[in-house]
Amino acid sequence: MSTFQIGRQDAFLVVDVQNDFCPGGALAVPDGDAVVPVINALMPRFDHIVLTQDWHPSAHHSFATSHAEGEPFGTVQAPYGEQVLWPDHCVQGTKGAAFHPDLDTVPAELILRKGFRRGIDSYSAFYENDRTTPTGLAGYLRERGFTRLFLAGLATDFCVGWSALDGRREGFQVVVLEDACRAIDLEGSLQKARAAMRAAGVALAATGDLAA
Ligand code: VGL
Ligand code: ZN
Hints:
Layout: E1 10-15, H1 35-42, E2 49-54, E3 75-78, E4 81-84, E5 110-114, H2 137-143, E6 148-154, H3 156-169, E7 173-182, H4 189-199, E8 203-205
Parallel strand pairs: 1-2, 1-6, 2-5, 6-7, 7-8
Antiparallel strand pairs: 3-4
Helix pairs in contact: 3-4
Bound molecules: pyrazine-2-carboxylic acid and zinc ion.
């Protein structure tokens, strides 16, 4: 079992811990709110914390309601490839887009918003779903000298997973703390995401793997 010693070149990236991804929300991840106390307890162990926030305009292209024939959890062909359709969620300025009220946002040094272009979704905190439009996060993290990222949040198989893969692509060491994440698990998407992360050199770990 690997033990990770947290240091100054590590950043804790907390993905999309927002009301709409928690029970009662528009795109509730099963047991999603269970990550909140786990993440809050981890925060004091990191010197540097970044939060992400899914932040869509109304009538976003990823919403099933934006497509005449669209069903939530169906797909459409977008110019950039297949796009899963979701219930309307994380609309800018709504309660659903706000962080879970118990999440400790105070220690965050950066809050990065994504998915704000109407025509393109952004699961990853690094690139929008065309895989080429950057959010700026890689440059920010590099400029600050971080070399390793610890990821937690929602959802393991979408925004956490895609962020982990892009983190590797951008040259960071990436550790996903799986017990601080929960998955949507749409048609085997969790198993697929875990395999892709492993293949890309992402460490799938647990909070117990962090050195005391
Ligand atoms: C997410 C689906 C749509 C996520 C965001 O945070 O994992 N999933 N938008
Ligand atoms: Zn979204």
